[in-house]
Amino acid sequence: MGVSDFNDTFKEKRENKGAQNFNDQNDSVTMVLRHKDIRKCAHNWKNYQSGGEEIGRIVIPSEEDIRDIRQIPFEVDPPEHKGYRDLLETWFKRPIQNEYIIKLTKIIENIIDENLNKDYCEVVSEFALVLQSRALTLLLNIPLDESKRWISWGTHVFRSEETNLDKNKADILYDYVDSQIDVAISNPGNDLYSFLLSSEINGKKLTKEEVKGIMILTFAGGRDTIINAITNSVAYFAEHPKSLKYIKEKPEIINNAVEELIRYFTPLTQMGRVVKEDTNICEQDIKANSKISLCWASANRDESIFEEPNKVILDRKVNPHLSFGFGTHNCLGASQTRSILRILLKVMSEKLLSIEIKEAKENIEDLKVFQRKVGFNTLKVQFKS
Q1: For every residue of the chain, which 3-state class applies, written as one string?
Q2: Which of 58-72, 150-164, 365-379 has the lowest mean pLDDT?
Q3: Considering the domain boundaries, does residue 1 fall inside one?
């Protein structure tokens, strides 16, 4: 078994039961495992809600104890959700624009050049985190140097080595966002903070708290997930050099390849919803105000949907993966993630002769009833040109 292989830990329960119960900090959760059931639940926002009174509850592990700021539009349901989403769509679609792609390509080329032919590069902290942070400055439309501060926070803004949920670390982000909003209020510019502060929804200016909720989601939502996606992709091409050569010879498959890597690795395992009314899922009765989990990682290996789901097929044609969610709350940062990975694959295929793994330590997510590999705590490689 290779370093870049990710087992389907959900297979038996998905096929036999379709759901699995577990506890999240004494909160009972029903994890939904089948692709079709997850899509149905995600589509039915009226009964499976994201915007309940308990802020942070839908995240697993729950973030109720470390924040009281609602992440917007992630924790807002229709009809209010639409106003926020419509406002943000244009800004978060910028990564597909040609000018943006040119700038992002330069960022990625520079990072690869910085690490070419070194004895080794630690991919998680020296490559993926740096790439994600520098790319975020482009998304926020602020100076590149600001990424140095974010890199100092590490790969996750709510977690530390000591604990899954670190309030002190979370407060660093909250205080930072507060200070940046104050700067934008006193000296407006062309950045995302200023854009939000000058925007209206239904004739009302966004409040400072609403702006903060959007910015916290922007920082937290696409951090460790993008880092995992980059790191796992590097590990895959290190072990499959013919695949990197294949992309160089057939660059037209890059879009398919990115979707397949995102499906196979599924950087975010699951997301919760709170049940509004008594319901039944996979022959299990679930009471109102209970929590369910939509397990994207299980859905993406569902044999009834995907042929050879445990194999990476870079030119896979039909690929209805759920790595960016589904329905009302599909990921706002999907365009940023896709653009990063598309450019990364192109640049790696053009610049690199090979990638040699020197050391790898897996990052295993302990879900109590399941243990799932999500990436690496350490991945040392040598990029050879």
Answers
A1: CCCCCCCCCCHHHHHHCCEEEEEECCEEEEEECCHHHHHHHHHCCCCEECCCCCCCCCCCCCCCCCCCCCCCCCCCCCCHHHHHHHHHHHHHCHHHCHHHHHHHHHHHHHHHHHHECCCCEEHHHHHHHHHHHHHHHHHHCCCHHHHHHHHHCCCCCCCCCCCCCCHHHHHHHHHHHHHHHHHHHHCCCCCHHHHHHCCEECCEECCHHHHHHHHHHHHHHCCHHHHHHHHHHHHHHHHCHHHHHHHHHCHHHHHHHHHHHHHHHCCCCEEEEEECCCEEECCEEECCCCEEEEEHHHHCCCCCCCCCCCCCCCCCCCCCCCCCCCHHHCCCCHHHHHHHHHHHHHHHHHHCCEEEEEEEEEEEEECCCCEEEEEEEEEEEEEEC
A2: 150-164
A3: no
pLDDT above 90 (res 114): yes
- Structural domain tally of the chain? 1
Contact (Cβ atoms closer than 8 angstroms) between residue 375 and residue 228: yes
Residue 66 in this model has a pLDDT that exceeds 90: no
Q: 205: which strand partners?
A: 200
Tokens of 88: 């943000």
CA 299 to chain centre: 16
Measure CA 260 to chain center.
Answer: 15
- 255 is a domain residue: yes
| pTM of the predicted protein model | 0.96
| Residue 205 placed within a domain | yes
Question: Cα separation of 357 and 239, whole Å?
Answer: 8
Using alpha carbons only, give the angle 322, 90, 218 rounded to the nearest 5 degrees: 60
- pLDDT for the residue 280: 94
Q: Which residue has the higher pLDDT, 15 or 170?
A: 15
182-241 tens-digit pLDDT: 999 999 999 999 999 999 999 999 999 999 999 999 999 889 999 999 999 999 999 999
Token digits of residue 105: 């390509």
Q: Which domain holds residue 262?
A: 11-384
Provide the pLDDT confidence category of residue 165 given band limits of 50, 70 and 90: low
- CATH number of 169's domain: 1.10.630.10
CB neighbourhood size of 204 (10 A): 10
Instruction: Band the pLDDT of 161: cuts 50, 70, 90.
Output: low
Is position 5 within any domain?
Answer: no
